[in-house]
Structure formats: structure tokens, C-alpha cells
Design goal:
Blueprint (H helix, E strand, L loop, with lengths): L1 H8 L1 H11 L3 E4 L7 H7 L1 H11 L2 E4 L4 H13 L4 H8 L3 H15 L5
Antiparallel strand pairs: 1-2
Helix pairs in contact: 1-2, 2-5, 3-4, 5-6, 5-7, 6-7
Length: about 110
């Protein structure tokens, strides 16, 4: 579900949404005045895009979905060490390393 959301509102907004509402079912109203917390979390433009597609329904935000995405997002922004990322997200430094290593492994081409 979050992959579909990311295609509509962009990866950065989807990461923010998943981090803010992880582990919750959230109702996406058609009228965003009824959901100021969504607008605050992802911004007005992304919230409008979300409401256009999902307005009137509930979406489930997985508990762990945001952590991997946030690690990758913070790492790609640059300027932060694995320790700083771990502290910011409340996870272990080793977990940050494993997430980044898995992402690197998936991007390497297979040797023939």
C-alpha cells in the first residue's frame, strides 16, 4: 500500500507519512480541513494528492514500514553518520548499517 502511496505523493512525503502514522489505520478525508495532522506531516500539496486518490477511505500504515525508508532517506540526504541516524530514529547503529548494506546489495549488478 505505501508503495502505491509513494507513487502518488512522492517518496519523501510517503516516508514522512509512514513515520508519523506508523502502526495506525488512518482515515483520509476528502476535505483536508478534517485532517490537519496529515497536512502537517506531509504538506498541503502531497495531502491534496493523497486525498484525490484515497479520500474517503482508511489506509493501514505498517508499524515497521517507515524505519527502512527513513534510514535510506536520511542517508541519501548526506551529512549524517550511521550513529546520528540511529539516534534520530531510536534504533541501533548496527540496524542502520544492515539496512544500508541490504540496499547496496540490491543495487549491485550481478556478475556473469
Amino acid at each position: 500500500m505505501l508503495d502505491d502511496v509513494a507513487e502518488v505523493i512522492g517518496l519523501s512525503a510517503a516516508v514522512k507519512l509512514s513515520w508519523r502514522f506508523r502502526g495506525q489505520d488512518i482515515y483520509i478525508p476528502k476535505n483536508l480541513d478534517r485532517a490537519p495532522e496529515i497536512v502537517e506531516a506531509i504538506g498541503r500539496e502531497a495531502a491534496e494528492q493523497l486525498a484525490d486518490l484515497y479520500g474517503g477511505i482508511r489506509i493501514a500504515v505498517p508499524q515497521r514500514a517507515g524505519i527502512r525508508a527513513m534510514v535510506l532517506h536520511l542517508s541519501r540526504q548526506g551529512g549524517k553518520t550511521n550513529r546520528q541516524i540511529a539516534n534520530e530514529l531510536g534504533i541501533g547503529e548496527r540496524r542502520v548499517y544492515r539496512i544500508l548494506q541490504q540496499a547496496d546489495d540490491r543495487q549491485l549488478p550481478l556478475a556473469l
